[in-house]
Amino acid sequence: MASPNLLQRIALGINSSYVREQARQHPLTQLFWECTLRCNMRCRHCGSDCKISTVHPDMPFADFEKVLLRIREQYDPHKLLIILSGGEPLMRADLADCGRRIKRLGYPWGLVSNGLLLTDAKIDELLAAGMRTATVSLDGFEDDHDWMRGTPGAFKHASAAIRRLAGESIPFDVVTCVNRRNYPRLTELKEYLISLGLKQWRIFTVFPVGRAATDPDLQLTQEEYRALMDFIVATRKEKRIHLSYGCEGFLGSYEGRVRDHLFSCQAGITIGSVRIDGAISGCTSIRSRFDQGNIYTDDFLDVWNNRFADFRNHEKFRTEACAECKYWKWCQGNGMHLRDDSGRLILCNLDRLR
Questions:
Q1: Separation of first and last alpha carbons in the chain
Q2: Which residues contact 257 (CB under 8 A, 6 or more apart)?
Q3: For the segment 141-173, what is each residue's pLDDT rounded down to a tens digit?
Q4: What are phi and psi of 214, to 5 degrees?
Q5: Over 70: is that where the pLDDT of 47 sits?
Q6: pTM > 0.85
Q7: Whole-angstrom Cα distance, residue 211 to residue 218?
Q8: How far apart are CA 114 and CA 39, in angstroms?
Q9: What is the distance between the alpha carbons of residues 305 and 24, in angstroms, rounded to a whole number?
Q10: How many angstroms separate the CA atoms of 203 and 256, rounded?
Q11: Distances from the Cα of 302 to the Cαs of 64, 70, 278, 320, 354, in angstroms?
Q12: In a 3-state reduction of DSSP, which class is residue 137?
């Protein structure tokens, strides 16, 4: 694997200083609300926390509203994006009403959806309720997407939703989980998304937790992973669609070339979450072992301001392979979602780039 060049090293050094200052100030700019665990799909790569039953009741909006009211005491709500996630958020019949009430409190809000329930009528309802951003998943063409999502017809519904939302004035992107089935057709998929009018596309790969931990069809080979990075670089140079890679860790010489920013894990620094059971954490991809409190027993602002020590200083994770790694100063041991319950690193992207 090639090392970052001189300009990249300078940029990474500046970025590291900036992230340290961010960690000190920890300005909350995004808050995920896991409003339901109910879902209308059975995705092969689902990473939902299996310690919580999928029949766990939806969180009453009034409970989350108390958190939003408390946050307003310290933050300007207009500068803090609320992201509704799940499960599938649209399984909640009251989702648009929740959005209206979030907007009434002054917060912009957005949605992460599998697209199955995003009909034109539903999109109209959500936009009227103040939806400001949206993300829809599309994991390849019909056979590959429906296989990945475990739901016949999923591709058709997602495609229709993408075509409609791509024509709206709100920030909108599509996320694609690249795996061994859809990898060979990424160029075709790019052209298809462009034909739907999409401007923003985001790619990620599967990290081995949840159902994905035991499914070899989901894990790219080292050669495929390197080729995926090159595909992203080439697509970004074309400027026909804006493609970026997800926040899945430090990427060595690809830093600054496949994303709009240099790597840093913003969980617990600028990004927080409230999960279905009230747990307060950095983002919904992070294991429950790293929960910092609970809205039903703790004050959210107190938790945000005074806990999250491991999120804001990763030194305790500088063990095993990370202990002597020359990239630690820039990587800081990768994202928190890539650590198991004991804090050990599950996946290092640098290993896939060798």
A1: 5
A2: 229, 232, 233, 236
A3: 999 999 999 999 999 999 999 999 999 999 999
A4: -120, 25
A5: no
A6: yes
A7: 10
A8: 9
A9: 10
A10: 15
A11: 16, 10, 15, 33, 43
A12: strand
